[in-house]
Design brief:
This protein is of the alpha+beta class. The protein folds into two domains: 39-248 and 270-281, Jelly Rolls (Sandwich), CATH 2.60.120; 298-411, Homeodomain-like (Arc Repressor Mutant, subunit A, Orthogonal Bundle), CATH 1.10.10.60. The chain has helices at 58-64, 170-183, 194-213, 221-239, 264-277, 279-288, 298-313, 322-329, 333-343, 348-363, 370-376, 382-393, 397-407, and strands spanning 53-55, 71-74, 82-89, 92-99, 103-107, 114-121, 127-128, 131-132, 137-140, 147-151, 155-162, 188-191. The protein has a seven-stranded antiparallel β-sheet. A hairpin with a 2-residue loop joins strand 3 and strand 4 (92-99). Helix 3 (194-213) runs antiparallel to helix 4 (221-239) and helix 7 (298-313) crosses helix 9 (333-343). The longest helix has 20 residues, at 194-213. The chain is globular and about 60 Å long.
Length: 418
């Protein structure tokens, strides 16, 4: 059975925000079929809980992933178009994000949350913290030290965010703690069986589509409880065959899942029984855990991160050339070339130019002029700067400047890592 489509994208009308819903929205013809509709199909009295919002500004899209502290750096040329759809119920939040350009994403998830990404559509080279990323990999984004993610062009992923302390049922909280322990303390790609990832994708897509069509459901406690159980069970099942069944006591009828949570002593006993029952599933997951090998890129990625750390440490004084960068971090130009081509698929000259252009773009909301933003990051040939800017972002720097000044977007970049 083919996976159902995500709900259609609501595009933003011309106005103050490039990433917001509006009553006059129209369909964007450049978006894939099945992801676009007219605002006329939306309920007139309230927006559905799962309503994808189209974004033409990558900084605003990054800000929509609340609690991720994201910074996006666009690497592939062309006008950015993306969308974000969010479903939140109790201790569960699902965020479907679509991108159409290769981005270097850097972020850190809020503590106390287990966050995994489930790729729906991938097209291009992708790397998460030095590991090759692919469609059948469960992507762990939460954990120590934050993450670096080279996301591919034409990328659609559903992120599962689980806040264990906010889950209604003690058994679910215990399950999330166990899943977090099994996935480990740091971001990584965990290879799961393709059939398991397919089943997980279909469950999440179906859930989001169903709730998009009935906006009143999430106002009811029973529906929120059902969403929590559906998502946690689906993730548990994908990570180990038979795990979801073990969430219920042996011999319990199916209707037990709809009963009130057990008393604390019963819940503790049930959780202990679950841990014992999950041992075979834990062993199976251990077999799929990331291992150094053909897909491992940690050495070149470490050098890429050292370059990023150098740039971040001097955000107002970004290196203007590879020669300056080589001198600052003390490596040979040849080593730098190999690391960047292996990890990101582009040379350090192109990467540094992209970083400077992205930072100049962020500065356009605060600068007094386009010239001020350009010269701040070492662009002294203004015609060449305009051409390079337009080639990367699909618009002239003056267009970005006018739009951001009109938006009062001088603080749009405050959520990004510096």
């Amino acid at each position: 059975m083919p996976a159902p489509h995500l709900p259609p994208v609501q595009t933003a009308p011309p106005g103050p925000s490039a990433c917001s819903p509006g009553p006059q929205a129209t369909a964007a013809p450049s978006q894939p079929a099945g992801l676009v509709h007219s605002a006329a199909t939306a309920a007139p009295h309230a927006a559905p809980p799962v309503q994808p919002i189209a974004c033409q500004d990558l900084d605003e899209q990054a800000a929509r992933l609340d609690g991720w502290n994201l910074r996006y750096c666009q690497l592939s040329p062309g006008r950015f178009e993306g969308s974000v759809a969010t479903l939140e119920a109790g201790g569960v939040r699902l965020v479907a994000e679509r991108l159409n350009r290769t981005l270097l994403q850097r972020g850190a998830v809020a503590p106390g949350r287990l966050v995994v990404g489930v790729p729906v559509h991938y097209d291009g080279h992708a790397v998460l913290c030095g590991q090759r990323s692919h469609r059948d990999g469960l992507h762990l984004f939460s954990g120590a030290d934050g993450f670096d993610f080279l996301s591919p062009a034409e990328h659609l992923v559903i992120n599962i965010e689980l806040h264990g302390a906010a889950l209604q049922r003690p058994a679910l909280r215990a399950t999330v703690e166990r899943l977090a322990a099994r996935l480990g303390p740091r971001p990584a790609v965990h290879d799961l069986p393709p059939q398991a990832m397919t089943a997980l994708r279909e469950r999440l897509l179906m859930l989001m589509a169903a709730l998009h069509h009935d906006s009143a459901l999430l106002t009811r406690g029973t529906a929120r409880d059902a969403v929590e159980r559906t998502v946690v069970h689906a993730l548990a099942e994908a990570m180990g065959e038979g795990m979801a069944e073990a969430l219920q006591p042996a011999g319990a009828p199916e209707t037990a899942a709809c009963r009130p949570a057990a008393a604390p002593r019963q819940a503790q006993a049930q959780a202990e029984a679950e841990v014992h029952a999950q041992a075979p599933a834990q062993a199976r997951l251990a077999e799929t855990a990331p291992r150094p090998g053909a897909g491992d890129m940690h050495r070149p990625w470490r050098l890429v991160r050292a370059v990023q750390a150098r740039i971040d440490a001097h955000a107002e004084d970004c290196p203007l050339s590879v020669a300056e960068l080589v001198a600052d971090i003390g490596v040979s130009r040849r080593s730098l070339q190999y690391a960047f081509e292996s990890a990101l698929g582009l040379n350090p000259v192109a990467y540094l130019r992209a970083e400077r252009l992205n930072r100049a773009r962020a500065a356009l909301g605060r600068a007094g002029s386009v010239t001020e933003a350009a010269t701040r990051f070492g662009f002294w040939h203004f015609g060449r700067f305009a051409n390079d800017y337009r080639a990367l972002f699909g618009e002239r720097p003056s267009e970005t400047f006018r739009r951001r000044q009109a938006q009062g977007a001088g603080t749009a970049g405050d959520h990004r890592l510096n």
